[in-house]
């Protein structure tokens, strides 16, 4: 019997491939790249044109009533605070998305983000419509800018409960619910209500993943904890900003 020797370099190559695949995050890279591209594009037009573009992409009641349901998706690619703000918050958002994509995979990250963004936007729109019809809020609110990444991001924050060890899940859930509810009670805006709703949706998705045991069982490593910490800064800025 002839036993062939295994080349000494084989384990090194295997580990190298593993590391490279662990950093292959297509959803995170693509989304962050599009956000930056749109932000740069808005700086290349006049302020009036930029405002018009943002309003056209907004999921306000005026656009939805006109049947512009494409804004449910386009609004997630526009950050109206300006290019300077984008280059501050986008890296923080990237860390949040990266840890979720590493733990759940690309498809589940996209599913969670889209459910959080679209479902929350629809729920907020229904609530605003009822408030306008009841004359609880002025009619001018139907044409305000309503774009951004925060609803989808907050759903991801909630879903990340599935990535944590069981003994830390209650603290994670209670802390974010307290912050989100505090934002509603302090600022009383429909955006704060949306953040709370998106977080609840994300927590529901996270609990479903736990029940179905689709989240990885191995614990977070030091890099994922670092990404989670930086991503949490982004979520805090969204809730308290």
UniProtKB/TrEMBL annotation:
Keywords: Membrane, Transmembrane, Transmembrane helix. It is found in: Membrane. Pfam families: Rhomboid_2. SUPFAM superfamilies: Rhomboid-like. Its main location: membrane. One of its GO terms (cellular component) is membrane. The chain crosses the membrane at residues 23-45, 82-100, 112-132, 147-163, 193-210, 222-240. InterPro entries: Rhomboid-like_sf, Rhomboid_2. It is a multi-pass membrane protein. Signal peptide: none annotated. This is Uncharacterized protein. It comes from Nocardia terrae. The lineage of its organism: Bacteria, Bacillati, Actinomycetota, Actinomycetes, Mycobacteriales.
């Amino acid at each position: 019997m002839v036993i062939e020797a295994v080349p000494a370099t084989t384990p090194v190559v295997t580990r190298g491939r593993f590391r490279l695949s662990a950093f292959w995050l297509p959803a995170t890279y693509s989304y962050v790249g599009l956000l930056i591209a749109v932000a740069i594009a808005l700086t290349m037009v006049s302020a009036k044109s930029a405002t018009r573009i943002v309003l056209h992409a907004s999921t306000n009641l005026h656009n939805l009533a006109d049947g512009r349901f494409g804004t449910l998706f386009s609004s997630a690619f526009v950050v109206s605070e300006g290019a300077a703000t984008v280059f501050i918050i986008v890296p923080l958002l990237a860390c949040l998305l990266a840890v979720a994509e590493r733990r759940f995979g690309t498809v589940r990250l996209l599913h969670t983000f889209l459910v959080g963004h679209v479902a929350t936007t629809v729920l907020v729109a229904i609530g605003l419509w009822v408030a306008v019809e009841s004359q609880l809020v002025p009619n001018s609110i139907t044409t305000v800018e309503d774009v951004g990444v925060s609803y989808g991001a907050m759903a991801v924050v909630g879903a990340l409960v599935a990535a944590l060890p069981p003994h830390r899940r209650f603290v994670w859930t209670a802390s974010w619910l307290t912050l989100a509810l505090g934002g509603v009670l302090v600022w009383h805006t429909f955006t704060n209500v949306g953040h709370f709703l998106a977080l609840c949706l994300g927590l529901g998705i996270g609990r479903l993943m736990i029940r179905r045991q689709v989240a990885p069982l191995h614990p977070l490593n030091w890099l994922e904890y670092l990404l989670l910490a930086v991503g949490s800064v982004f979520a805090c800025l969204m809730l308290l900003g």
